Amino acid sequence: MKQLLLRTNSFIRAAKRTVKKHPFIVKDIQETLELLSEDAFHPLLKTHKLKGDLEGSWACSVSFELRIIFSFVQHEGMDAILLETVGTHEEVY
Q1: What does the pLDDT look like over 48-86, one tens digit per residue?
Q2: Domain ranges of the chain
Q3: pTM for the model
């Protein structure tokens, strides 16, 4: 069962900034979001729990350099994924 993806304002801003810098990455982000919605722990995503300042959040890989940071939340009584930000490893950690 697909999970609802909720986009924060910071995710939307970061996605726009990332796409502006790397327009070729749009398809990879879309495919990653689709896979994330279907199975957040699919091996291709390399999903992992974060520590430190980002404890409670998770990260998945879009590409070698690009990561999406997200959390598992409840939305209207259903499981959902809250997309927090997207960017290079250096930008998001």
Answers
A1: 999 999 999 999 999 999 999 999 999 999 999 999 999
A2: 4-92
A3: 0.94
